[in-house]
Design goal:
By secondary structure, the chain is mostly helical. The chain contains 5 helices and no strands.
Length: 106
Amino acid sequence: MLTTGSISLSDIKEHLGVTFSDDDRKLNSLIATSEMLILSQLVEDESTLPFFVNNQVYLLAVKMLCAHFYMNPSATSSFEKHELPFGMKYIVQALRKDLMLWNSVD
C-alpha cells in the first residue's frame, strides 16, 4: 500500500479537534486509507512519492478525506450526505497537474 507517512496522528487529531485517545487506532487506519485512496488516483509507482512528502495541497486532501470518513462513519443518515468533501475533485486535479509538471523537470 502506497503512503508517504507525511501525516501523523497528532496532525489529524489537531485538524479534527480530537483531544482523547479512544479513537487513535481508528484514526491511524483512516489516515492510511485516505492516503492510499488519493495516491491511487495519482501515482503509478513509488518513484513519484517524493512529490507528495510535505506537499501542503496533498496534506490538506488527506486531512479532508480522513475527516470526512471520521465524521461520516455510516452510509445512512437522516442528514444530507456527500460522496466526497467539497473541493476534493479540484484538489486531486490540481495535484495531478502539479505532479505532471514535477515529472517533466526530472
